[in-house]
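Amino Acid Chain and Its Fold in Token Form
===========================================
Structure side: the spatial fold of the chain, written down as a series of whole-number tokens.
Position: the record begins directly beneath this header, with no further notes in between.
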Amino acid sequence: MQISDLRIFTEPQQGATYDTLLAVAKRTEALGFGAFFRSDHYLAMGGSDGLPGPSDAWITLAGLARDTSTIRLGTLVTPVTFRSPGVLAISVANVDQMSGGRVELGLGAGWFQTEHDAYALPFPSTADRFAMLVDQLAIVDGLWTTPVGETFSYTGTAHSVKDSPALPKPIQQPVPIVMGGAGKTKTPALAAKYAAEFNTPFVPLDFFVTQTGRVRAACEAIGRERPMVYSAALIVCAGTDEAEVARRAAKLGREPAELRTSGAAGTAQEVADKILAFHAAGADRVYLQVLDLEDLDHLDFIATEVAPLLA
């Protein structure tokens, strides 16, 4: 693996200004990582006060599109409950234009009911949210791929479109869609139809192998010709020695032993070994979840000490 196969993944709802995110994105870009991704949430989790407050993912990415030049940008993942499919298609196409074609859309059914309650967002049942996901994928894809000058119509269970001019168009044709999820049949089938990448976040290696196997089978079942990218996401906590690992873990309110089990933690070699284990199991790229956004030295350490061990 190369450093370009590593992507930095952030959780700004835990507390981050735009300037903080920009500093992380610029350092990510300068160090040669493959992409800067952010979550799409409106409420802090795990006891964080979330100060100074949440930021909208696609407004933030629009700013980063203009304030960076080469790094790819995206969400893990945008819930279908936050934006109607038409608005989402327009927003992502706009940001793709603003970035010169560097955007990727992570899309999922959503899960965090508390943030919906906190900001007046409807939170339907799991079955209804999955129906929304089916329609959202079909509509976003249809709006982007309909030839200019033609209209797009679609009748769905949760969302329908009638005679849309299907504008604007993104620069990329198509914008890569990233999907994930633990479903055994419906999720792999949807991913095989629409996704450029299937991401399996924060799961044991054996489940990564099982779930990506289901997606591979779904791709074969429909005779999919374009390759699927398979990726994993791991929380990262790396350091020169145990004292530095412990210091970084403490900033997250976590224990090094737990992070070694659930993520990629420890010395450079330990972190590299965990990443390489997922790579050997079929991960084309790995998202490293960086939670302390003030610790830019952490990014430097990963780039200079961990990445060379992956080559």
Q: What stands out?
A: Residues 3-310 form a domain with the TIM Barrel fold (CATH 3.20.20.30). Residues 58 and 91 are 7 Å apart (CA to CA).
